[in-house]
Every structure is written in structure tokens, then in C-alpha cells.
Amino acid sequence: MPNQMTKGDASRIQSSQAQYGYNTGTGSFSARAQSAGDRNANTSSNSQSNNGQQSNTGK
């Protein structure tokens, strides 16, 4: 998917928010960006580790 939040994107957002004194705690924009970056990184790594094959778990 194009335009997904990456961990690098989240890092830049969090850094700039902290630099200018904005809230970086739970529920803040930077925290939500970090969560999205982590989620997308996990989804990406799971897709790559399966090599496009479905898991047989639970069969």
C-alpha cells in the first residue's frame, strides 16, 4: 500500500513534536504515528516472512 506510515516517518514526527515542546505522551499525534509505524512494520515483516503463502496454523 502506498503512503503507509513507516517507523522512520514516525520518528521524524516524534522528534519534531518534542523539539517544539508539544505533547508526545499517550494519545498524542506522535504516539499514534509511532503505533501506526510499528503496526505497518509488523504487517510488512509478516507478509514477507510468509512469502505470500497462507499459514496452515490450526489445521
From TrEMBL:
* Compositional bias annotation for Low complexity: 42-59
Q: Where is the composition biased (Polar residues)?
A: 1-33
- This protein's superkingdom? Eukaryota
Protein name according to UniProt: SMP domain-containing protein
Q: Where is this region: Disordered?
A: 1-59
